[in-house]
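Final report, Chapter 2: Outcomes

The project's central promise was a pipeline that accepts a single protein chain and returns its three-dimensional structure in a standardized token representation, suitable for archiving and comparison. That pipeline is now operational. To close this chapter, we reproduce one record exactly as it appears in the project archive, with the input sequence first and the structure output second.
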Amino acid sequence: HSFPTRRSSDLFGGGALVAVRSLWGMPIATVLVKNESERKIESIEISYTTCGITRKITYRTADQQTSRPVSEEVQMRLVLCGEGSHTTEVMLSGGQVYASKGSYIQGGYEVTERITSSGLVSEYTSSLP
């Protein structure tokens, strides 16, 4: 019997495709929104700029396909090409909107946005060496 063999370049190409699709090696920053208020989160929008490009990520409670109760924590990941800046805007039930002032962000940063009864409180940590 003769078995098909794969060239190492084929294996590398397949691995590279998996890496690109799963964002391996890309600088990732994480924004964790924690709801400590008495109201339900309706939506979260993060706007961020990196390498001159502005992107938005939106989470809407109504879009979630789950029978579980709405989470009090929502984690969002930002793919960056280097340094950047970001803002977070949260809409709560009843139409109340809170927004962060915006700040610097880079790969390895983790931002926790705590929703309190009086607004957003931002806490930054870095997993960079």
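Archive annotation: The two ends are 52 Å apart (CA to CA).
This record, like all others produced under the grant, will remain available to the consortium after the project formally closes.
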